[in-house]
Protein 1
Amino acid sequence: MKKKEIILQVAMQLFAKKGFKDTSMAELSKTTGAAEGTIFYHFKTKQDIFLEILKTAKEDILSEFTRFTENRKFKTGIEMMEGAISFYLYLSELKEDLFLLLHRRYPFELAEVNPVCRDHLESIYNCFVDIFEQAVLAGQADGSIGPMPARKTALIVFTMVDGLVRFKLYNLYDAGTLFDELTASCRRMLENKPVTV
Amino acid sequence: MKKKEIILQVAMQLFAKKGFKDTSMAELSKTTGAAEGTIFYHFKTKQDIFLEILKTAKEDILSEFTRFTENRKFKTGIEMMEGAISFYLYLSELKEDLFLLLHRRYPFELAEVNPVCRDHLESIYNCFVDIFEQAVLAGQADGSIGPMPARKTALIVFTMVDGLVRFKLYNLYDAGTLFDELTASCRRMLENKPVTV
DNA sequence: GAAAAAACCGACTGAGTACTCAGTACAAAA
DNA sequence: TTTTGTACTGAGTACTCAGTCGGTTTTTTC
């Protein structure tokens, strides 16, 4: 494996676990085995390393997204929603470092002044919310999900699932036992209830 | 106002807006008008400033909590839940700096190695979740909320509301338009539905 | 196999960091 | 009036930081 790839991979882990500011180039050099000069040969600045990490992460997430929407077929929209929630939780385990990174403040602060960073972040988050929105729209088409604004509902579901991921990543609460309750809550929230009047 | 109070107040703002690490003692000294020596006369370390901020924040939140539970009377549990959600959003505006601070990673990282910090954080978050839990329990007693695990449901509602606050603090989405949808979603999620079989 | 190019090295730089300390100002106590 | 104690000062300290630079090794090209 080339040094550049090693640097990107190790930087991702360190930025995720310790934060961008709290990871020094000296530490990155030591962990990768590449001299500090080598790191700055491949990347102009420390920030550029972060942006390249985010770029590959975006491509990664987008390909996972198409893999999910193409391969999986669901009977109802509400089942698709449960599949989407499971998919998000599955991804958060598969790519734990990325999710740790995205739960830090640095990416958002950088996004405020750096359009490239903003674009990457938007792509990633739109991708996630889109999946939930598609599930709502599908459910409303087949009658399994009641009438409600699709995008807003998708955002609300996203906050719930991402909150669960946060509990899991920070070890704040046994997320496993919360998962069943979360899907049940979503189901009650979304279900198409016949009007009783 | 004494210099010590000014230091605490300004440090709170800077830690919230720029982060703990990204706030230097030189900047804190300049902004407060107190010499760096003065800051270290009142506080042994930079971390101690943060811990004292968190301590007063805890006391603050706990007194708001009792104010909410004592003064407000609700007809049903589900109305109490809506009141609790509004209360949380109201607090997040009233004490924006504190909520910005609590949405950073530093407090949680410090909590992992510092029991004092952990205690303060636990007190604050338990306080919030307790309000939601009490609403669920009250609703189950009066029949407005269906049978579901109270604590877990409270945690799920917390992730939703805190997610909305995050949207608002980070300016990610027009939180005002999401609020109505959030309360409606919670209502659907919690409502006691008669069994139709 | 020589020349050119790309990859790599680590000592070095200067700006910035949290924190120290000898000393000042000033009010209350003796 | 003298002493004592508290709030305060800012230059100084040892250290860390991202980024540089002159030079060496490895790979590619012809």
Protein 2
Amino acid sequence: MSEPRKLEVLRAIVEDYVHSREPVGSKALVERHHLGVSSATIRNDMAVLEEEGLIAAPHTSAGRIPTDKGYRLFVDRISQVKPLSAAERRAIHSLLEGPDDVDDILERTVRLLSQLTNQVAVVQYPHSNRALVRHVEFVLLAPKQVLVVLIADTGSVGQKVIDAGSDVSNEALMLLRSRFLGSIAATQMALLPQVLPSVVALCPPELRSLAQTLAQGLQSLSDTSREERILMAGTANLARSNVDFPLSIGPVLEALEEQVVMLRLLSDMGDDPRGVTVSIGRENPYDGLAEASVVATGYGSGAKVGILGPTRMDYPTTMAAVRAVARYLSRILGG
Amino acid sequence: MSEPRKLEVLRAIVEDYVHSREPVGSKALVERHHLGVSSATIRNDMAVLEEEGLIAAPHTSAGRIPTDKGYRLFVDRISQVKPLSAAERRAIHSLLEGPDDVDDILERTVRLLSQLTNQVAVVQYPHSNRALVRHVEFVLLAPKQVLVVLIADTGSVGQKVIDAGSDVSNEALMLLRSRFLGSIAATQMALLPQVLPSVVALCPPELRSLAQTLAQGLQSLSDTSREERILMAGTANLARSNVDFPLSIGPVLEALEEQVVMLRLLSDMGDDPRGVTVSIGRENPYDGLAEASVVATGYGSGAKVGILGPTRMDYPTTMAAVRAVARYLSRILGG
DNA sequence: GTTAGCACTTGGGCATGTTGAGTGCTAAGT
DNA sequence: ACTTAGCACTCAACATGCCCAAGTGCTAAC
């Protein structure tokens, strides 16, 4: 049995199964694809594929369906990225229009991606390593509570309420604000941890502890605004694509609700800046996603975009969409 | 047949059905509830209830289930709000702890509510009518793009990118910022539409048009920060509560994804500041929610909290939870 | 107005039969 | 050494028929 044909058979099985949602048998296979051999030969090949754990039969006398391992091989070695349709290109292009508000763009991106792929789309807020501090604001909410606001020149705004140990005066805040602002304006976010301590050190002793608290607040903002948030869209696709198909969507919804889980998931994925990464079924670190796959890639300076869907998914098309969207995102937000 | 007993029967049917998820028959009814009459009598009563459209039989020889109208009557006239359990009270109390960040509080509230009710919880961002302007910031992102930030003394931060028609200088922005800030600091958000025009009018003529654009931005922030956003949690409960129960969750997920739909839904609901409002099944203005009910109430100065779940839901408990959570929310955020 | 009794309906469970897609194997063909 | 035709076998899915329990509606008596 020839190695190339074996792969061809696997490809055919994956494609047919993704398309029909039904186990595919040897006879149907030779009919739909013009492999130059008979169904008996295919049966032999399939037996081998099954031995290798690439396909499996749900029950004795049904066709075969790909295993996680089968999909893996398919994705790694067989599939070719499909070009996008003209309409799809147009849709992505239209992302370039409209206001360049980061939130807005991400919002629209994630919707578009979910529509293109018919899956749940997920996008991580862009890293703002290179962003510069544009403004700092301290707002006294209650005697001991201060709202810390950190604005970057990219337009991203981070905010956090912190608890000062003791009563805080407005004057003190004003003073500290101008101190901080004077020292860190136009500084890279990534450098804050190095710069902030010296600012604190230069403050009058009686304000030192407050300044310390505020500095911590600012620093955590520079951290969290980098990675913390995630946006998603297309949850309804989970239900739709699984009409009469029992991917139990409960666990998946749970995973999607836990931003922590999703963040972990995305950042665990490889970081090949060129290609997209695929995590299939049980390869996922989270149990609830044992029947799901994640297709993701990085954009900009390292944040991730991707989709989540059933293992039985049209990988070539999906990968193409994710890749295209990521590229445009990089272009718009400026790597 | 006595009117009180008829209601009693309806109540029993609703309660049993909610509990067992199965149509309830006359015999089971007399066994579980000690109504002082025989099953034959109940049958007569049930026939009447069915005529009145309050209950229906899925097939000829099955028990009855409540109709939307039946639930309506139940909610309006029969049910008594159940007191919360001690554990539930404790959980709600613990909301009082931790930092009083608005986002944080709402986030935790909505999670808590979804856990208490086992439904999807939804909360609208609080109205900030009475909030005072604390700070205004303009950030130049690109030659023609300005980020407008509006900070309220409540700690809520609104932001928006606006498109100035022509190139903008940093100096101009600085000047306008101090003008605006001087005029509207400590002004009520609700008053902005009246105050802003006069600020614009006092600007130097060459900056007038930019000032006008910025003023519009500020105003829309004061509007949108009031109503626009919605937070939700517990989507996974949709799948869980419908294991082996075919509320098609697809349409519901769609509705939940459309913030517009949800906002409309919430604001269409009555505004009784004391009690909770319930919208049952087809009473909902959105078709996808024909098999769902919404239980909501106002909090603070008019925003809404509530839950969404299947029509077959434990209304008394749910209503109690929603009401209790709304009260605490009002207390924390200061009506 | 209530109740007991009874005939009637019907979905669900179960055992049984049938069908068809699909397999694995063997033996023959290239 | 592959490939192929043929064939016996397996098994989910569907269908059929049967029975049962739950439930109803009605009537006649209390």
